What we know:
This protein has 336 residues and is of the alpha+beta class. It folds into two domains: 8-74, no CATH class; 81-296, no CATH class. It contains eight helices and twelve strands. It has helices spanning 8-14, 53-56, 81-93, 104-144, 157-183, 194-205, 210-233, 271-297, and strands spanning 29-35, 38-43, 47-52, 68-74, 239-242, 245-246, 252-253, 256-261, 264-270, 305-309, 322-326, 333-335. The strands form four sheets. Strands 1-2-3-4 form a four-stranded antiparallel sheet. The protein has a three-stranded antiparallel sheet with strand order 5-8-9. It has a three-stranded antiparallel sheet with strand order 10-11-12. Helix 5 packs parallel to helix 8 (271-297), helix 6 (194-205) packs antiparallel against helix 7 and helix 7 (210-233) packs across helix 8 (271-297). The longest helix is centred in the middle third of the chain and has 41 residues, at 104-144.
Amino acid sequence: xxxxxxxxxxxxxxxxxxxxxxxxxxxxxxxxxxxxxxxxxxxxxxxxxxxxxxxxxxxxxxxxxxxxxxxxxxxxxxxxxxxxxxxxxxxxxxxxxxxxxxxxxxxxxxxxxxxxxxxxxxxxxxxxxxxxxxxxxxxxxxxxxxxxxxxxxxxxxxxxxxxxxxxxxxxxxxxxxxxxxxxxxxxxxxxxxxxxxxxxxxxxxxxxxxxxxxxxxxxxxxxxxxxxxxxxxxxxxxxxxxxxxxxxxxxxxxxxxxxxxxxxxxxxxxxxxxxxxxxxxxxxxxxxxxxxxxxxxxxxxxxxxxxxxxxxxxxxxxxxxxxxxxxxxxxxxxxx
Length: 336
């Protein structure tokens, strides 16, 4: 049989080649991870998605497409605590061989969505903090030079807060989506919140259970985030964001935020101080929630495994703390 003639586009797509992903500033490539058909390239200071031209042009209609394509996912990589506590922890723990009847691939995908959302939250918070610092320094400069008095002002502090708490609340929703994959049978659904999950854990494991205790400690924070988003989104009078304020004693009070809605209260608090704890809290909550989900829902493997904290000197990724551990090979083996 005569061999079919290969078209120029076939020759171009099928020939070998090399590709540089990112730049030298991104550091080394540490892993290429298959995420539901997507190739995620993990570098020291960035994450990229890498794919071939056939993925977006499977019928080979455009010869001008480059053979390989890359897209930046996030400008943080394995050296980031945020990346390590979310995506890297999830991909390490949520491996299908450790779980039965759970869509662990979707859990890892959602962890990447969570990472992207928290990265956006981090940017909004940093932008606000930089603006407050800039305004404060400008005020001090004017005061020291004896210029005419003017109260400093952010100008759009409430609008900035609305965006920030939308992203924070969205992060809680993604966490609930991940939890739902493991605990749907316990009544957790897409409309649930951490308070609902706390009740489900009590019903399933009892009040002395470590997971129940941990989630209980997150409730005040999560409730405040959710109600701040709710009140700011709907312009309800129960939240108050105050810009720089001139006090009767001539002192200047930096921007503050307060909330009094239903049973959720946040006494008047420095806005910059409160925003500063948002990301660290979400990093801690995400990381420990993933670890506990693995502890509670993993099934016996060929060799017995448990979730343990990885000693710093043996970590594959500097800030990734948890992995499954098997009791063999002297001091045991961390599956990372």
